[in-house]
Amino acid sequence: MEKSLNEETYEKLKYDIMNFEVLPGDSISAQKIALRYNVSRTPAREAIVNLEKEGLLKVIPQSGTYVACINCKRSEQEWFVRKSLEIGMIDAIFKNASADMLDKMAELNNRLINYDEETESIPRIEIDNEFHQLIYECSGEQLAKNIIKTQMSHYNRIRYLAELNKNISVKTNDEHNMLIDAIRNKDKRMYLRVIKAHISRIFNELDKLKGIYPEYFEKN
Hints:
It contains twelve helices and three strands.
């Protein structure tokens, strides 16, 4: 089904915010969005409404609308939701996983291992997201998949920043391989241990990231 102009504008602006093409703290308006994406103000205003609901935009009365800085408390709440949903998917994943899915997961992880900015057209985090989308689709939990996709805006922006650090991204690649092996070997205990560590690890790097990108985080 063809997407409406409202949906396209929303998705483009969200993509640009999540991938730091539009930065935390930047001023946003319907006029700026309309000019950026060559649309009228109606889909621009609709994008603002939807992204404010998701916590990516902040409307300050008598001041304007701004890209929300990363809120660490919210990111922890988002992480808790993701952790709970991913743990709940495990039985379905092990029941439904196929050799074809595992091959696709391995292919995506090889792209991450050999990631080259000059040859890849999308950020590392987008490939990482595709890897996890395969897991969500395998579980058959469509609502959980949609919640993870739309309600993790602060947590996922920390993930993006973390993946810019090669020391962190190497660990991501290693853990992906461990998840693939766990599914292939039907080892639920190993999968549970790895997935918990995998989606929690960015918090070990949080102080470092706040030191590198202080302007992207909300002040305490």
